[in-house]
Write a structure and sequence with these properties.
By secondary structure, the protein is an alpha/beta fold. The chain is built from six helices and seven strands, in the order H-E-H-E-H-H-E-H-E-H-E-E-E. The strands form two sheets. It has a four-stranded parallel beta sheet. A three-stranded antiparallel beta sheet has the order 5-6-7, with no helix packed on it. Strand 5 and strand 6 form a beta hairpin. 21% of the residues are buried.
């Protein structure tokens, strides 16, 4: 996909015109270049789970998470911490200003079919099997509460 940048740009602009938000997934790894933040119409950065998983033990991972959060904030982008599995990670990301998180601490991943059927049934929150937290859908953000 990234070999045809013009086509990608056109598609992303069309998606945004239709009301979709665009996020750079796994930011900090692979194809996620800082240059894309200037060229692509993005709304959010998703911190790669490899950094989140290691923040309690590795000061470099903490520094990278802090830098990605600060970068997103300065650019007016939402930031999502991926792969949150324990309360320490959640509290760290919350304290540093991460907008939202996803991971097994808040709830297991759902297939598109299961997610759609729960929303169609009018379910606005799900109890996580992994913890005593409840995941609620509030506007554009997902929040975890006890």
């Amino acid at each position: 996909m990234m070999s045809d940048i013009r086509s990608v740009m056109t598609s992303l602009h069309e998606l945004r015109e239709e009301g979709f938000s665009v996020a750079v997934d796994d930011f900090g790894t692979g194809y996620s270049s800082l240059r894309y933040l200037q060229e692509f119409p993005v709304d959010a950065l998703k911190i790669d789970s490899s950094f989140v998983q290691d923040i309690e033990r590795n000061s470099d991972s903490r520094a990278i998470c802090i830098a990605i959060i600060a970068l997103a904030q300065r650019l007016g982008l939402m930031v999502v911490g991926e792969g949150v599995e324990d309360p320490w990670q959640l509290e760290f990301l919350k304290r540093e200003g991460c907008d939202t998180v996803q991971g097994h601490l808040l709830g297991e991943a759902l297939s598109a079919r299961e997610f759609t059927s729960r929303l169609a049934a009018g379910t606005s929150h799900f109890r996580s099997a992994a913890s005593d937290r409840v995941v609620r859908f509030t506007g554009q953000k997902m929040t975890g509460v006890r």
